[in-house]
Design goal:
- By secondary structure, this protein is mainly β.
- It contains 3 helices and 37 strands.
- The chain starts with 5 loop residues before the first strand and ends with a strand.
């Protein structure tokens, strides 16, 4: 595994003016800005993984959030250093994104919310991100490790068996997918790509090659479409909650039954560190649709317009609203914190206790509450002032859940990769769908 470390070295100098024959030296009245010599390398947070190159590093001034530097590390062998004044900064890294696949914002337009977006007709690369806040206040070397975390899932295989002979085309799509990622790691640009399957045997259709996807793990809609030779299409839908997480390889195996009910079994294979999961569900004529009105009579869609971002819905704060093809998706933050007694419990025990508490939590019929993920916790940080003004006070530090089901903390200062047992509260979120 490549170990890469960010080293910051400072050096202070003075400006000297020589006065010709007088041979006198005078110190300039202009202030001299002390600078650090910055050497950057990266490493993966998971043993056995390599970092995805190139790595684009963005450094923002903590005071005014302006871009200070944008540098690109092309590969693990490239020396990487630059100078930077003493001060406080936010350092972001995006690994795996290159100009052949992605469109980058011009440096003059870069903010922490600027988007790196997938080009038309391209598929995602193995995207990784890192973020660290730093303060340089002396001349000593400042070592900083940028821990790169994978942000994609890989659809390794999708196979449908016992497909009738009169079916001419088969495809699979997964919604809650995204085209872009902001510099700060927030996913953006909702997208519903469709992946055509190819006939690989008698009645068997398979995904030709693996694809990488940026997925919202909270709720993933799987759609399988079967098209007959006469052009008519029948589609089947399934919503999977909390089964898709970053850094997993996903394999979906489906069998079409003669009674028009298909049973889907999806196996999620952990990538270096994650465990195994199996997703099993069935669908048939009760939840299929044609090319139009696919969500007609869908009980999961609320029959009213979506509330606006920063408003309250059932006393809870609306963090985000995203327009989908057939509905509007709302990310809702619960109206108050919940205390959690950690004591001598293990991290797994604390997480299980939180999940058990949330499994029975409802407010005016709204359920499905869960811990926020890393991206959602950043939204809470961004909107913290408005949240406090609209709901009950927040306690200061709260849990969020990483893609490998680990507990981490965040507060108004940012996100922390620290031990779970330093937390005392959590505030859950849920995802709702509203009619367009």
């Amino acid at each position: 595994m490549e170990q890469k470390v960010l080293l910051l070295r400072t050096a202070i100098g003075v400006s000297l003016l020589a006065l010709g024959a007088c041979e006198k030296e005078i110190v300039s009245d202009e202030p001299v800005i002390a600078e650090s010599s910055v050497s950057i390398t990266t490493r993966s947070v998971n043993d056995g993984e390599t970092v995805s190159f190139p790595v684009n590093v963005y450094v923002f001034n903590a005071a005014d959030r302006s871009l200070v530097r944008h540098e690109t590390l092309a590969d693990k062998d490239q020396p990487f250093s630059f100078s930077i004044p003493l001060g406080s900064y936010s350092v972001y890294a995006i690994g795996g994104a290159d100009g052949s696949r992605y469109t980058f914002p011009a440096d003059r337009d870069v903010t922490e919310e600027a988007t790196i977006s997938l080009k038309e007709g391209k598929e995602h690369a193995d995207l990784m991100t890192a973020h660290q806040n730093i303060t340089l206040d002396n001349k000593e070397d400042y070592p900083l490790t940028l821990n790169m975390e994978r942000q994609v899932v890989e659809l390794t295989n999708a196979t449908i068996s016992q497909v009738p002979a009169d079916i001419s085309d088969v495809s699979i799509s997964l919604t809650s997918s995204y085209k872009g990622i902001q510099i700060n790691g927030t996913l953006t640009g909702s997208w519903s790509p469709t992946y055509p399957l190819t006939k690989s045997g008698e009645g068997v259709w398979s995904l030709p090659s693996p694809v990488m996807m940026l997925i919202d793990p909270a709720s993933v809609d799987i759609t399988i479409s079967l098209t007959k030779e006469d052009g008519s299409t029948k589609t089947y839908h399934y919503t999977s909650t909390n089964d898709f997480v970053n850094n997993y390889k996903i394999s979906i195996e489906a069998t079409y039954q003669d009674d028009n009910i298909a049973t889907i079994t999806g196996t999620i294979i952990g990538c270096t560190w994650a465990g195994n999961k199996t997703i099993t569900f069935s669908f048939g004529d009760s939840n299929h649709g044609g090319n139009n009105n696919q969500n007609e009579n869908d009980p999961s869609i609320i029959n009213e317009s979506a509330p606006a971002v920063h408003s309250l819905y059932k006393g809870c704060y609306v963090l985000k609203v995203e327009e989908k093809d057939d509905y509007d998706e709302v990310l809702l933050l619960y109206k108050e914190d919940f205390p959690i007694e950690v004591g001598s419990k293990t991290e797994a025990e604390v997480l299980q206790e939180i999940q058990e508490q949330l499994s029975t939590l409802t407010i005016e019929g709204t359920s499905g509450w869960r811990l926020p993920d890393k991206t959602e916790s950043q939204l809470i940080i961004n909107y913290q002032g408005a949240i406090i003004n609209s709901t009950s006070p927040m306690s200061g530090a709260w849990y969020f859940c990483t893609s490998d089901n680990s507990l981490r903390l965040f507060s108004k200062q940012g996100q922390y990769n620290i031990d779970y047992n330093l937390g005392t509260h959590y505030r859950p979120v849920t995802t709702l769908r509203f009619q367009k």
